Amino acid sequence: MCITGLEESREESKQSSHSPDVEYNLPHDSAEHARLNDQAEAFLELMHGNLVHAPLQRPKMILDVGCGTGITTRYLGYLYPSASVIYGIDISPIPAFESSSSSTPPSNVSYIEGDIHNLEHTDPRLRPTSFDYIFQRLLIGGMTDWATHVRAMAGLLKPGAWFEVHDHAQVWFRHEDEVCSAEWAWLKKMRQGARGLGLDLDCGFNAQTYMRQAGLVDVEVTRYQIPAGTWMAAEKPEKRRIGEHMAREMGPLFSGQMLPGMTRCLGLSKRVIGELQDECERCLEGEDGKFCWFYVTIGRKAGETAGNIVVGESERGKV
């Protein structure tokens, strides 16, 4: 365990919402809950309402890993009302639901609080070869040892069942093919710190490799181009909300939370951290032509199972 001047503020930001042994660098408060919900809705718009990319039919057991506020778990409950149970897992408590009926969880949705690294070995609800579908999104800032994690998720799948990962790779572009983030000092330092903590800032791109190494088959990737701002919205209106979200939220999120959290073991002075934070804010501002890729990766456990049937082929590629 490393101790720096940032540890106190980091622990305060966690608000004792989960174990300090868990690698997670974002707060657990109402503002963060609102950001997560807006982000979930923006991604749903980006994907034209098609959250699930795996070719599912009548899944009975579903797992949502790193479910955050539970908004996506609830959506899966509405999407698959015939599912026996849909578990949402998160290291923090699920926030209280609003009184509106639209946010009331379906009867087949249940939540489990804890670290998936531990729960997969200790929780009797997470039985090997029991799930028809496992979903996870945006664990880039908290999932350590991806290779081991993906192998463990493969172990929870029934034969023929699907694992689906939605995540980023921290590479930014301008105008199609020009990488603009290679010389960002703040990102270089954050990558260095992340590696030391066991995080993978390119997990979205690397998910396909982790799945194949875990023995999953029929691995396919869909890429979504996410603009920093609204410059693509006139041509592709489904990108407006996610572009607004990225331009508004990413700078403060990375500079204020993820950068200091992930570099805390590098021995950087407060002055250097401050300079990197300023640069981070500037780099992640909205800008015409700037974008990143968001990756959706699916993989199937070999074999067949009733209730989880492959129905033809779907085109994967750039969206």
Describe this structure in words.
Helix content is 35%, strand content 20%. It has nine helices and eight strands. Strands 1, 2, 3, 4, 5, 6, 7 and 8 form an eight-stranded mixed β-sheet that branches. It is globular. The chain starts with 6 loop residues before the first helix and ends in a 19-residue tail after the last strand. Mean pLDDT is 88; it is low at 3-16 and 306-319.
What characteristics describe this protein?
319 residues; alpha/beta; eight-stranded mixed sheet; 35% helix; disordered N terminus; disordered C terminus
Describe the secondary structure blueprint for this structure:
Elements: H1 7-14, H2 30-46, E1 61-65, H3 71-79, E2 85-90, E3 109-113, H4 116-122, E4 131-137, H5 146-156, E5 157-174, E6 178-179, H6 185-197, H7 203-213, E7 217-227, H8 240-262, H9 270-283, E8 290-300
Helix pairs in contact: 2-8, 5-7, 6-8, 8-9
Outline:
The protein is α/β, with parallel strands linked by helices and 319 residues long.
Please trace the helix and strand order, writing H or E for each element. Answer: HHEHEEHEHEEHHEHHE
| Amino-to-carboxy terminus distance | 42 Å
Counting DSSP E segments of at least 2 residues, the number of strands comes to: 8
Give the rounded overall mean pLDDT.
88
